[in-house]
Write a structure and sequence with these properties.
The complex is a heterodimer of chains A (443) and B (303).
Chain A: H1 8-29, E1 36-43, H2 46-62, E2 66-73, H3 75-88, E3 93-95, H4 116-122, H5 140-144, E4 147-148, E5 151-152, E6 155-156, E7 159-161, E8 164-168, H6 169-174, H7 184-196, E9 200-202, H8 210-223, H9 227-238, H10 247-261, H11 272-280, E10 284-287, H12 294-300, E11 306-310, E12 324-327, E13 330-332, H13 340-351, H14 353-363, H15 376-380, E14 391-392, H16 426-442
Parallel strand pairs in A: 1-2, 1-3, 9-10, 12-14
Antiparallel strand pairs in A: 3-13, 4-5, 6-13, 7-12, 8-10, 8-11
Chain B: H1 12-38, H2 57-63, H3 68-100, H4 107-115, H5 122-132, H6 139-146, H7 160-184, H8 189-197, H9 202-231, H10 234-239, H11 249-264, H12 271-302
Helix pairs in contact in B: 2-12, 3-7, 3-9, 7-9, 9-12, 11-12
The chains are: A alpha/beta (443), B mainly alpha (303).
C-alpha cells in the first residue's frame, strides 16, 4: 500500500507551532529587556497631569525597561476609582489622601469613621515608606503633617494657598486704587471704587460649589486670631462648648454674604474655569481662588498684570497678613502593587530636587523641599507665609461631621447663602446650622 | 410543529437561555440582593477594612438625627420630580403622538426629531443644556440680556430644579411618544369612522374610542416614567452635581457610597449607609410603581 500523502493543513500546523516555539525561545533569551508597566492613578487637574506626564517621560528615559501608564480620573470619581484599583491590585502609585488632614487620624472627640486613608493604613493597604532615603529631600516639618500612626505612608506633592484674592493691577489703578486693601473697610471701599469705575469687582466659580467656599475660608482665617483658635472652635463644637450661633460665627456668615454681594449675581452659574477665563481676560478686578490657578492665568494671558493678597476680612491689618492653605495630595504605594520596587524608584525620581523643582514649577505648588524657588508668583507669596511654612486653613483644621446634614457638615453653610442658596438672614441661618449640628451629635 | 418537543431537543432552549440567565444572576441579582445585608453594616468601601453588623442604625440615621431634615427634603424632591416628569411628560407625549399620527407633511421627519434626544447619551444631553443655559454667556443668557435680565440658570436655587425636570422630560419623551404611536396604530380605522358617522366630535372620539384602546400604552408609559424618574440621577449629576436644591434620592445613594471622600478627602465613603438609602429607594419605587400599575390595569378592564 502506498504511503498516504500528508495533508497540507497538517504541514501548516507544524510550521506554526515551530515558529511559535522559536519566537518564545527568542523572547526568553531577551528576557533582560522585558518591560514592566508601572500604573499611576491620580485625580485629573491639567497642570498636575502635565507635570506628572513630563516626569514620567524623563523617568522612562532613565529606566527604559519601565513603561508608565498614567490614568487621570475626575476629582469627584477619584475615591471610587482608587478603591477599586487598590482592591484589584491595578495601581502601583496613587494618591493616598487629597490633603494633609486626610492622612491624620481624627482626635478622640470626633465621632464617626476615620478618613479613608487612615482606614486604609490600618487595613494594611499602603506601603510603609518611613525608611526610604528620598524622604530626606523634603522639609521635615512638612513630612510630619502627613504621618499616620507614627509612620510615613504618603509623600506630599506640594502646598497650595487659597485664602487670598487674585487682583488685576491695571484695573485697580484705573479705579484709583494705589495699594491692595489690608482691612475689611478698605476692601469694602475698593469694591465701591471699582463699581463706580464700572468694573466688575469680583468673580467666583460658584457652579463648582467649592470655589465659592474659598472666600469663606479666607474670612475664617481673618476673623480667628490663629490656628489654635480655629482648633479650639472645632473641638468646642464637637464638645458642645462652642456654638454656630456665637457672634463670631454670625460675623463669618455676614462677611461671606457681603463678598457674594460684591460679585456678579450670576456667579453661581459660573464654573471655576470660566471664572479663571474671565479674570485672565482682564474684565474682572478680583478673583478669590487658589494659588494653583496662577499657571492657568499666565498661559491664558501672559501680559496680564496681576498679584495675590490675603482677603482682608478682619477689621485690623494684623489679622489679615497670612495666607492659609493645605498640603495638596500625596503619593502612596498600595501594598497590592506587584511592582513595589519600580514604584519606589519612581518616588525616588520624583523626590530628586531637580525633578521636584520642575514638578513644582509646572503644577504651581508651593515647594515643600527646602531652598527651591519655582516661579516669581510663588516667590511673591513668601511675605504672607507663616514661619513654619503653610498655615492650615479652616478646612484643614475642622473635622467634618459625617452624621450632620448639609447645613453643618462643613461649617459654615456657604451654599445656603444667597445667591448660592436662598438664605439672606444670617442669624437665622446660624440658628439652623446650630440645630442641625446638635441633632447630629445626639442622633 | 414544535422542534423542541421530544428527546434531547427539549433541553436546547434551556441551553440557549442559561448563559443569559447566569449573567443576569451574577451581575444583577446577586449584587442587588447583596445590598440588603450590607445595609445593616458599617462597610466603608475601603478595601480590606473591617466592617461590623450595626442593625438598623443606618435606617434610623436616615430618618432621624442631623441628616433627617436633608433626607426628607430629598425624598420630597424625588417625589415631586417623579410626579411632574410622569404627568407632564405623559400628557405631552400623548399630545405629540396624536399629532404625529395624523396625516401631515414630513411626518417621518418630525417623528425622528422627537425621538432624537433619546439616542443621545446623558453626558451629551448635559453638555447641550449646560451650554444653552450657560450663565457666562450661553444662548439662554443672551436672550435674557436682550430683555435686560440675567440668570444663573443651573446655579439658581429656585430655577435649577425646574430646569433639570425640563431636561429630563426633553431627554425621555421620545420613548413615550413611540409607545403611544404604536398604540394609536392599533386603533381600527372603521371604529373611528363609525364614531364620526355617529356624530362624535374630536374630543368624544378620543375619550370614547381612542383612549380605551390605547390604555395599555398609557399604563406602560406611566410605569416606565415612574420607575425611570425615581431611579434617575445621571442628569442631575451632570447638570448640577445635586447642588442648588436639586439632589434626588438616587444621587444621594451614589454620593454617600462612592463620592464622599473625593471632595475634601476627609469624609469617608459609607457604603453601608448608601445601601440602606438604596433599600429605601427600592421600597419607594416598588410601592409607587406597583400600586400605579395595579390601578391602571384595573382601569383598563373598566374601560
Amino acid at each position: 500500500m502506498a504511503p498516504r500523502a500528508r495533508p497540507i493543513h497538517r504541514l501548516w500546523a507544524i510550521a506554526t507551532v515551530a515558529l511559535s516555539l522559536a519566537l518564545s525561545l527568542s523572547a526568553c533569551a531577551d528576557s533582560g529587556n522585558v518591560q514592566t508597566t508601572l500604573r499611576i492613578l491620580i485625580h485629573s487637574n491639567p497642570p498636575t497631569n502635565a507635570a506628572v506626564t513630563a516626569l514620567n517621560q524623563e523617568f522612562e528615559r532613565k529606566y527604559p525597561n519601565i513603561k508608565i501608564e498614567l490614568t487621570t480620573v475626575p476629582t469627584n470619581d477619584f475615591a471610587r476609582a482608587r478603591n477599586s484599583r487598590v482592591a484589584a491590585g491595578t495601581a502601583d502609585i496613587t494618591e493616598g489622601a487629597s490633603s494633609g488632614l486626610g492622612t491624620q487620624p481624627s482626635p478622640a472627640y470626633v465621632t464617626g469613621p476615620q478618613p479613608d486613608f487612615v482606614t486604609g493604613v490600618r487595613a494594611g493597604n499602603w506601603v510603609d515608606l518611613s525608611d526610604q532615603p528620598f524622604l530626606k529631600n523634603f522639609s521635615p516639618d512638612v513630612l510630619r503633617q502627613v504621618v499616620t500612626d507614627g509612620k510615613q505612608y504618603a509623600v506630599p506633592s506640594g502646598g497650595v494657598l487659597y485664602t487670598g484674592v487674585f487682583y488685576n493691577k491695571t484695573l485697580f489703578a484705573s479705579a484709583g486704587l494705589t495699594s491692595v486693601p489690608t482691612t475689611w473697610p478698605q476692601f469694602q471701599d475698593a469694591v465701591r471704587k471699582l463699581r463706580a469705575a464700572n468694573i466688575t469687582p469680583l468673580v467666583i466659580g460658584g457652579k463648582d460649589i467649592w470655589p465659592a467656599g474659598l472666600p469663606l475660608l479666607a474670612v475664617v482665617q481673618s476673623l480667628f486670631p490663629d490656628v489654635s483658635a480655629m482648633q479650639a472652635f472645632d473641638q468646642g463644637l464637637w464638645q458642645k462648648t462652642a456654638r454656630l450661633t456665637d457672634p463670631i460665627s454670625v460675623q463669618v456668615l455676614e462677611r461671606v454674604k457681603e463678598i457674594y454681594a460684591s460679585a456678579d449675581p450670576t456667579f453661581p452659574g459660573v464654573s471655576e474655569d470660566q471664572a479663571s477665563a474671565k479674570f485672565a481676560s482682564g474684565t474682572v478686578a478680583m478673583w478669590p481662588d487658589g494659588t494653583w490657578n496662577a499657571a492657568a492665568i499666565d498661559k491664558a494671558n501672559p501680559n496680564l498684570q496681576y498679584g495675590y493678597f490675603p482677603l482682608p476680612a478682619g477689621d485690623s491689618p494684623a489679622g489679615n497678613t497670612r495666607l492659609a492653605g493645605k498640603l495638596d495630595f500625596s503619593f502612596a504605594i498600595p501594598t497590592s502593587s506587584a511592582h513595589r520596587t519600580e514604584a519606589l524608584q519612581w518616588l525616588a525620581f520624583y523626590a530628586d530636587p531637580d525633578n521636584y523643582r520642575t514638578f513644582a514649577r509646572m503644577t504651581g505648588f508651593i515647594p515643600i523641599q527646602p531652598d527651591i524657588s519655582t516661579t516669581p508668583f510663588n516667590d511673591s507669596l513668601k511675605p504672607y507665609l507663616a514661619p513654619g511654612g503653610i498655615s492650615p486653613a479652616w478646612d484643614q483644621t475642622f473635622h467634618p461631621n459625617a452624621r450632620s446634614g448639609d447645613l453643618s457638615r462643613h461649617p459654615w453653610a456657604f451654599p445656603s447663602i444667597a445667591p448660592m442658596g436662598r438664605e439672606s438672614d444670617m442669624t437665622a441661618l446660624a440658628q439652623q446650622m446650630q440645630e442641625n449640628w446638635v441633632a447630629s451629635l445626639s442622633g | 410543529m414544535n422542534p423542541f418537543r421530544g428527546g434531547r431537543a427539549r433541553s436546547a432552549p434551556w441551553l440557549g437561555f442559561a448563559p443569559g440567565a447566569a449573567l443576569f444572576v451574577l451581575i444583577a441579582l446577586v449584587p442587588a440582593v447583596g445590598v440588603v445585608p450590607l445595609s445593616f453594616t458599617d462597610i466603608s468601601g475601603v478595601p480590606n477594612a473591617p466592617w461590623h453588623w450595626i442593625g438598623l442604625d443606618n435606617y434610623l440615621r436616615f430618618f432621624s438625627g442631623g441628616q433627617a431634615q436633608d433626607n426628607f427634603a430629598t425624598l420630597l424632591r424625588t417625589a415631586v420630580f417623579c410626579l411632574v416628569v410622569t404627568v407632564v411628560q405623559t400628557a405631552l407625549a400623548l399630545g405629540l403622538a396624536l399629532l404625529l399620527n395624523t396625516r401631515m407633511r414630513a411626518r417621518a421627519l418630525f417623528r425622528a426629531v422627537v425621538f432624537l434626544p433619546t439616542v443621545l447619551g446623558v453626558t451629551v444631553i448635559g453638555l447641550i443644556w449646560s451650554l444653552v443655559f450657560d450663565a457666562g454667556g450661553g444662548p439662554g443668557q443672551s436672550v435674557l440680556r436682550f430683555f435686560g435680565a440675567s440668570s444663573a440658570f443651573f446655579g439658581d436655587p429656585d430655577l435649577a430644579f425646574p430646569l433639570v425636570v425640563f431636561v429630563q422630560m426633553w431627554a425621555s419623551i421620545g420613548y413615550a411618544v413611540v409607545i403611544f404611536l404604536a398604540g394609536l396604530q392599533t386603533v381600527p380605522h372603521d371604529l373611528v369612522e363609525a364614531s364620526v358617522l355617529d356624530g362624535a366630535g374630536s374630543w368624544q372620539r378620543f375619550r370614547c374610542v381612542v383612549y380605551p384602546l390605547i390604555a395599555p400604552s398609557l399604563t406602560a408609559t406611566v410605569v416606565i416614567a415612574i420607575v425611570g424618574s425615581l431611579q434617575s440621577y445621571q442628569l442631575v449629576y451632570v447638570l448640577t452635581g445635586g447642588q442648588f436644591n436639586t439632589k434626588v434620592l438616587a444621587l444621594q445613594v451614589l454620593q454617600s457610597g462612592f463620592s464622599a471622600g473625593s471632595g475634601t478627602g476627609q469624609l469617608a465613603q459609607e457604603q453601608g449607609f448608601a445601601s440602606a438609602a438604596s433599600m429605601i429607594q427600592f421600597a419607594l419605587i416598588a410601592v409607587v410603581a406597583l400600586s400605579t400599575l395595579a390601578y391602571l390595569r384595573r382601569r383598563e378592564v373598566d374601560l
